[in-house]
Amino acid sequence: FSSAPHRLGFGSANPTGKIPLGLKRKGLRIVVTGGAGFVGSHLVDRLIARGDSVIVVDNFFTGRKENVMQHFGNPNFELIRHDVVEPLLLEVDQIYHLACPASPVHYKFNPVKTIISSSILENLDSINSTNVVGTLNMLGLAKRVGARFLLTSTSEVYGDPLQHPQKETYWGNVNPIGVRSCYDEGKRTAETLTMDYHRGAGVEVRIARIFNTYGPRMCIDDGRVVSNFVAQALRKEPLTVYGDGKQTRSFQYVSDLVEGLMRLMEGEHIGPFNLGNPGEFTMLELAEVVQETIDPDAKIEFRPNTEDDPHKRKPDIARAKELLGWEPKVALRKGLPLMVSDFRQRIFGDHKEGSN
Ligand code: NAD
Ligand code: UDP
Ligand code: UDP
Q: ipTM score here?
């Protein structure tokens, strides 16, 4: 393996290897790429509240300034409009790398951009400083400044899983030429790059495999099932169930995810770790919970399913429980109302709140 690092320019490993634990709590400088998005902005809230200095790097493809506006004027907060496919020079201690279109509607919009944002363009032989992007740039940054790097990967690396529930040791069942591949394979490649920078250049890395997450600040029209159902019920439109509605997902409230990401970053284990709520629902069951929460009279309308839709998905979180001391605390029926009030406010505005 020793010649590969040379070819990739992996000459100098991080000289200290570790961020001294004693320095952790105070004065950390942290980059959150994708920090103006749904998950990123909640993470930023927690980091700022803890007293860290946070730099958000976001190109606003799906992120919104409103998500982080509460920190404008805070000297510990900075917002940079920047696309991670371009190199970035910063001095930081930790990098949370979230930047990537995340909903199927968004990531299919420009699939080539999706794969290069989250992984690399073309092939490894052509790696040099011109055609490498996204995750690679952030890993290059981590390597240069000796920062710890956390990748937000996804349960999609398991594809349409043949193992249920999914453990981190499962290698997955992904269609490499399908319409979801730009995302699935992009994240799989991002995991590969992350481990290669760890093995080859000594970068301290962490990998989270995030399962379906919901909560306030989700894009209202991102086409994801929870945002669709909630917006539809509030607007008195039918809930659109794709296929027969018997496919399953496991829905995690965003504060649980953020807690897991921070524990992972601060802990001693690389991962990958599944971060998700093992509570599993069919889409028809989810529709029922939305009906109970918003409008018992909401109608259900069946629509054709999308291509390559995974039939079921549920995390095995034994590893995160044991090594991070983490498990989700917010059940779907508790978390959904919190998201509903945010959506109600954004769809109807304050003045109409309560009228629906
Ligand atoms: P989001 O779309 O709300 O946030 C992504 C953010 O990244 C947005 O602010 C967007 O503007 C920004 N972005 C996209 N491409 C960029 C680029 N090239 N340069 C700079 N910024 C860019 O999505 P989210 O749900 O908050 O997801 C955050 C991360 O978590 C993503 O990496 C996603 O793949 C991962 N994830 C999310 C879920 C989930 O259910 N929400 C599940 C699995 C994995
Ligand atoms: N990079 C970056 N910021 C940095 C250091 C590197 O954006 O502070 C980018 C750099 O432009 C390159 C990528 O990260 O495209 C990988 O960097 P690395 O040093 O690992 O590879 P090399 O440049 O030697 O090919
Ligand atoms: N889905 C649905 N109705 C919608 C949107 C999605 O029934 O309005 C289904 C979709 O077919 C999939 C599941 O909900 O089986 C989760 O889809 P989502 O896009 O939220 O997430 P992902 O497929 O990435 O897990």
A: 0.98
